[in-house]
Structure formats: C-alpha cells, structure tokens
Design a protein that fits this description.
Layout: H1 2-16, E1 28-30, E2 39-41, H2 44-51, H3 55-65, E3 76-78, E4 82-85, H4 89-99, E5 114-119, H5 130-148, E6 152-157, H6 164-178, H7 189-201, H8 207-216, H9 220-230, H10 234-248, H11 252-275, H12 294-304, E7 308-311, E8 314-317, E9 328-331, H13 339-353, E10 358-361, H14 368-381, E11 393-396, E12 402-403, H15 420-438, H16 444-465, E13 472-473, H17 476-479, H18 487-508, H19 515-519, H20 528-538, H21 540-550, H22 554-573, H23 582-606
Helix pairs in contact: 1-3, 2-3, 4-20, 6-7, 6-10, 6-11, 8-9, 12-13, 13-14, 15-16, 18-23, 20-22, 20-23, 21-22, 22-23
The structure holds arginine.
Length: about 625
C-alpha cells in the first residue's frame, strides 16, 4: 500500500502538472469487488472536480503516467472513474514479508500523541452493572489500541465519589458505626448498596427541585443526579448537607468512613476489571473528589472572564456559539457544583496538566448532550488548548444500551440492574459446560482456565463487536457460540493454527516451524485462496488506524472475523503439512504463522485472552 500510494502520487503530479494538489492522495482502498482487482484508487472523481474534466479521462491520464508494472497488472477503469489494481503474486509476497515481523508492520508515529481515555466511571457505594461493562471494555480496548499504535495512552476512571448523595450514604454508614451496629472493617459493597437505597427511598422526592432541573433540560444524567440530590426530605437533606460540609472541611471521622466506603467500592470494581482483563487500577482512578479544590477556582475563573453568567440565581455557560441551545449549568442557586462543573475541570486537567492531545470518553450515549455542553464550555474557556496554542480534540465515544432479549434495557426479572459480577460468573459457568463437552481430554484445572478465558472473552467480544453507537441484545447463547462472529470462534481459530504448529513439529521435527527457519522461507502465492488470505492480512495496519481514528473497535472485530474466515477457506483448499513440495509447505506454514500473529495481536488489542488449547 505504501509503495502504491507513493507511485500514484508521482503519477498524479506528472499527469496533472500545475493542477495537481500539493500532496496528492490516491484514495486507495481494498477493492469493493474482487472481480476487478485487489485495490482501487478513487482519486479521479475529486481531481476531476478541480479541473472540470471528465473523471474517466483523468483516470486514464493517471494510468498513463503510472509506473507500477513491477508490482501490478495494467490497471483498468470501471464505473465513473475507479482505477482498479491487481497486484502480481510476487508483490503480494513481498508485502507480506515486509509485514511479517513481531510488530506486524505497524510503524510508530514520528510524533506520538497523548490520548486520555475516560473509562469505567463507577459510582461510590454501588455495584458495577451491565452499563459499566461497556464503559470498561470499550475504554480499555481503546487505550490498548492507542498504545499499540505507539501513542501514550492515559486511562482515567472518573469515579463518582463526591457530592450530596455520597455525603448522604457516608452519613448513614457513620450513624450505624457510631451506634455500634456496624463495623467498618466488615463493610461489604452489597450492604453499602442497600444502605444507599434505603437512605433514598426513606425520603419523599422534592418535586419542585426536579421540575426546575427539567426546565433547564439538562439531560438524564444531570436529572438523575439531581433527582437523587432532591430525593431527601427536608430534614434528611439538611443532615446530608451538614455531612457534605464535614467531608469538604476534612472532618476526620467523616473522611475515615468515606475513604473506607470508597475502598470497598473500588476493590470490588478492580476485581471485576481484573477478571475482565481490563487494566483499571488505583493508578488510573481520578475520582470526582480529586477535583473538589479545582471547582471553585474554575468557576471563579469562568465568572471573572465573563464566560459564565447568572441565570435565575444559578451560574451557566452559554454554548449557543456551538449550536447548543441548553446552557451548561455549573453552579446551582444554592451554591452547589455539578457533574458538568467537574467534567469541565476534567478537560482542563487532562489537556493542560496531563498533556492530552486527544480526550476520548467511553461513556453512555445518553450522556450525549452533557458532553456536547461541557466540550463547548471548555473550548470557550480555552481549557482545551495547550500552552503553545494547539487545540486538543475532544471526543465522546458514545455507546448504546445493552438490551435484554425482550428488547428493553437489560434488567433482572424483578427489574433490578444486572450485576456485572453475576454476568461474568454465569458466562464462565456456561463456558465451562461447553468446554467440558467439546474437549473431554482437558484436566479440571485446564477446563477452569479455558472457561474463564472463553466466558469472559465471549462477553467482551459481543460488546466490542457490535456497532459502538447502537444498542445490542445481550444473549449468552449467541455470544458463547463457537460459530459466527464471536469471541470463542476467534479464540478457537487461533487454537487451530497453534495445533497445526504442534503437528508440524511432530511430523517434521522441532525445527521445521522455528521462527528463524520460517523467516527465511519465501511466500509463494499461487492459489486463489492463498492470494485472498494474503490480501486480508495486508489490511491489518489500515484497520487498526481506521479503528483508532473513529474509536470504533468493532471494525477490528469485523476484520478478525473476516480474516478467520479467509483462513478457513485457505486451509480447506490448500493442504499445508500434506503439501507436495517442501517450498509450498513452508510458504503455507508461514502464512499460518502470520495469520496466527495477526489474530493474537488483534485479540490482544481488544483485551481478549488467547489460549493454547480449548
Ligand atoms: N459516574 C458516571 C455515571 O455513572 C460516569 C462517569 C463518566 N465520565 C465522565 N467523565 N463524566 O454516569
């Protein structure tokens, strides 16, 4: 692709002379229709617009200047002016050889970027539920992808550990500890969650407050947050407010309880993350509480520069300059700060302290308006700019809702949120049954290890492989199937390739498939299925880059699935160990190795464990 692109650029320049753009881009992509070739260049249409000549004429003049006889057949033109290129088998082999290194031809950027990824986002005293699955695995996968491409990825778990609801539960726990009914050391997340809910339901909703929130149209997250905040009866609210003041002023007795609650919540969260093979730990956690000193300072800054203004006693930042009608509320009339205030401070910290060139937020799509508002407000305030004047890119990698088989948001029968740890346990238990059935020769320990990888891989893959922005239906049966676009299918594809290598050493000796030996074998691509898998392999880097640009991990999943399919067809059509000639066998073994490398690397980017056997 690199060579093709360079040759095309030269051809465009010489064909169009002064009319050529400064850095001509051939707009190369893998061919839509393999009947016409392996790649297509779509540049003739836009170039024709520049000159007013017919696109087919431009396409022909580019072909006339194009010097690619050493790597491809004579190009053809189809449709409005697509240029089709069919590579010579030798060129394909050379391309594969170039990519067949441990780095798989992924070059590191000349100037790595710092990408800050917001992920997980659990809340204090609450269990992780299925919604956090997406925020965790998509965020972690994106961070892995950016790191894989040579960027500096920083994870930020925006832990919801501050504000009035938090003070409320802290107060409730403290009362019981003080009364000797509860020991802090025996605190569990389940009991915390119960106390949190009790504290809420004991009080009647303050509907007036809620109506005011609705009037601002702040979106469901702010609404839910404020709903919780106003859910207390006057007295209870007063108590909670006093507790918040105590917390804010660092009252030791309160802080000790609050810290313990945070620890219990995070330990349970990190245990889920560990099982999910998602890298989220204390090091990546920056709770809302870590912004508490920044909030008054940021608000004062916005106020003094006239960016924030008063509205009905509250303080807002207008963002209609970016076409968003609802203003961003940053201080309530009672002086309290909001979710948005913290996130605006977050942009400032992530850009100006952490050096983020790109901020990515793996957060539920239902918070779309919130992110539009805080991005616009942060830009207005200059918080998304670096000291050298360059601007960071702010992006909400929004994801859809996980649905139950009835098409409604996934809930238990009794209407509760489904606990993430229960989901993980069930997936692993189901995987264990399937694995035992499929491979009775595995020991109990092996079964457990395989089941953990397969069950969790299945959940993650089902999540990552569906179009990020869309809702998807959670189905154990579908995600655990060994056929189709599933985690187990891809894990199994890799296991099959690994078993080919075990067999190869059995039949031909340890050395036959050693890296050193295969590195020296030439790719000989004569069969159509060999060419097809080669072309598929060559797409890998482009797929990674495309996925990183759009934050769409499902592109990687779709690609790996296609690759596994191309491999199956190749393997069915072309004998490897039984090949007649040694050079053919070696070339095919090397194709197997490269496919295995790409599958392993791709699954690694997605954070899905791979196995030797299953
Ligand atoms: N704790 C929030 C919630 O449960 C998610 C946090 C998302 N991240 C952020 N920077 N706002 O909805």
């Amino acid at each position: 692709m690199t060579i093709l692109r360079a040759r095309f650029a030269t051809a465009i320049t010489s064909a169009m002379g002064d009319n050529a753009p400064a850095n001509p881009d051939p707009l190369l992509s893998p061919a839509k229709n393999p009947e016409f070739g392996d790649y297509q260049a779509n540049c003739a249409m836009p170039l024709a617009k520049r000159t007013g000549k017919p696109p087919r004429e431009i396409a022909q003049s580019i072909i006339d200047s194009l010097d690619i006889a050493d790597i491809a057949d004579l190009p053809t033109i189809t449709g409005p002016g697509f240029i089709n290129i069919r590579l010579l088998a030798g060129a394909l082999g050379a391309g594969l050889e170039e990519m067949d290194t441990p780095a798989l031809g992924v070059e590191h950027p000349a100037k790595p970027e710092t990408v800050v990824v917001d992920l997980c986002g659990v809340n204090l005293a609450k269990q992780m539920h299925v919604g956090h699955l997406r925020a965790t695995v998509i965020g972690d996968g994106l961070a892995r992808l950016f790191a894989r491409l040579g960027h500096n990825a920083i994870r930020q778990n925006h832990f919801g550990d501050w504000g009035l609801p938090i003070a409320m539960v802290t107060h409730a726990v403290k009362l019981r500890v003080d009364a000797g009914e509860l020991s802090l050391d025996a605190l569990t997340l389940a009991s915390l969650e119960r106390m949190y809910k009790d504290a809420q339901t004991n009080c009647a909703a303050d509907l007036k407050g809620l109506a005011a929130v609705r009037r601002f149209g702040l979106g469901p997250k702010a609404e839910a947050e404020l709903e919780e905040q106003v859910a207390g009866a006057e007295e209870h609210l007063g108590e909670s407010k006093r507790a918040l003041v105590s917390l804010q002023s660092g009252d030791e007795a309160y802080v000790r309880v609050w810290e313990k609650i945070a620890r219990v919540t995070l330990d349970a969260c990190f245990e889920n993350c560990r099982r999910l093979h998602a890298d989220v730990t204390d090091e990546h956690t920056a709770g809302e509480s870590t912004y508490r000193a920044d909030l008054p300072e940021v608000v004062a800054d916005l106020e003094s520069r006239g960016i924030a203004e008063e509205s009905d006693g509250a303080l807002v930042v207008r963002v209609d300059n970016e076409g968003i009608k609802a203003p961003c509320l940053i201080r309530k009339s009672d002086g309290g700060f909001l979710y948005a205030t913290t996130d605006i401070s977050g942009v400032r910290r992530r850009v100006q302290e952490l050096g983020g060139d790109r901020l990515v937020y793996a957060v539920d799509a239902r918070q779309g308006l919130h992110f539009k508002q805080i991005f616009a407000a942060a830009r207005r305030a200059g918080y998304a700019s670096h000291a050298d004047g360059s601007d960071a890119e702010l992006f909400h990698a929004a994801f859809g809702t996980v649905l139950g088989e009835d098409g409604r948001p996934f809930k238990t029968r009794s209407g509760e949120n489904v606990k993430l740890s229960d989901l993980i346990d069930e997936a692993v238990a189901r995987a264990e049954r399937a694995v035992r059935e499929k491979n009775p020769s595995l020991s109990d320990d092996e079964v457990r290890e395989v089941a953990e990888a397969v069950g969790i891989g299945a959940i993650k893959y089902a999540d990552l492989s569906s179009d990020r922005i869309k809702d998807y239906v959670f189905s154990f049966d579908r995600m655990l199937a060994f056929e189709g676009n599933t985690g187990p299918y891809l894990q199994y594809a890799l296991v099959r390739i690994r078993s080919i290598f075990r067999k190869a050493s059995e039949c031909f000796g340890e050395d036959v498939a050693s890296d050193a030996r295969l590195d020296a074998c030439a790719f000989a691509l004569t069969e159509q299925k060999e060419k097809a898998i080669a072309l598929e392999l060559l797409k890998y880097q482009g797929v990674l880059h495309g996925a990183a640009e759009t934050c769409e991990l499902h592109r990687i999943c779709g690609y790996l699935y296609d690759l596994a399919g191309a491999f199956s067809s190749f393997f069915a059509a072309c004998p490897v160990l039984q090949a007649e000639e040694e050079s053919v066998r070696d070339s095919r073994l090397r194709l197997c190795r490269l496919t295995g490398r790409v599958l392993e690397d791709g699954l690694g980017v997605l954070g899905i464990r791979t196995l030797e056997r299953m």
